[in-house]
Amino acid sequence: MKTIKRRGAFVQYADETWGIDTKVKVGDTFLHFGKKGYPTLGAAKADFERAKAEFISSRSLNKTQVCIFDELLAEYAKMRALVVNETTVVNCDQSVFRNYFLPTFGGKLLRDCLNQEAIRIWYESLVGNPRLSQNKKQKVITRMKDLLKFAYSRKFMDAVSFQDCDVILYQVKGKKTAKTERVIWTAEEEYAFMSSIEDKKDYVTFAVFLACGARLGEFLGLQPKCFDREKQRIRIEQQAITLQGKGTYLTDKLKTHDSYRSVILPKAVSDLLCDYIDALGIADDEFIFFESDRGVPMGRTTFRRKLYRYCDKAGVRRINPHASRHIQATRLAGVCRNGQEIEAAARRLGHSPEMFMNTYAKHTSEETETALLGRLAEA
Predict the structure, then answer these.
(1) Is the pLDDT of residue 31 over 90?
(2) Yes or no: is domain 188-308 CATH 2.60.40.1230?
């Protein structure tokens, strides 16, 4: 009904009756509060406090009675975006929500979702799906457990309901199989790979990539302003990311705090990069490694296609782009002799020393194992 007059929280309608039309705070959220049918403004004012208390009480008793699952998911996604890398939230989390949460719970009241029976049915359907790998099932279950914790912390469910639902979600454990050894190139393989590249632009691209140990997004996001020619250093302070529905764009948000770093290039590679930038006349705000448009970084798919083509041409084992970090980490770990050198190696890769030793430097090769056995025999 059309309003013809407003007096603060009160409005008069076309039929000359009065009503309440305002917002009130319920918990940490402001909700719209409206009520119609008062014959006079005085009657509306006289009933305001009672009607307001009744409204707040009805919304505060239990969120499961008034909220739908999609609202919980939206709040959870907003919280995740504050603490998790944007690519994870958009590409990974949204995929889980869209494929495994919303088909079952979308549009339903929380009271029909956050209960033992509903979660049990969802869980059994998930783990019984033969098309999903054990790893995928485990990731989805972990995200659901995290969502339930969030729902309990934000009072979308009580302690008893949370416990009842949480105990149903057993971790999925598949049959253990031997771990596939990560491909770590030897120095000879890297030389053969580089020797197979005849295109000058591609040669500089992979020479810099293998030398700097950057993540692929960090590498593709490099611009001339990130390169200090005098000190032969590359500042890694931005990355090119690709998000579903958003395309590829540049952001200054890196994976961790340690990811912001400055990396020294070998002099030969630094000279190559200087000549490359000068020859193409690449401006400071353009991308060093591009396809046709200098304002757009080279695509991840294009980079991988080039990498695999030269691997096959050189007759060396294929590696994925991230393996270049493992190759450099393994070689750095092999020459580190003290804590200070380990810290420098970790900083070069954008990690803490503990992460460097536990995640990257733990890879071994047959050459490393043979050397250890030789030293053992001599002892």
Answers:
(1) no
(2) no
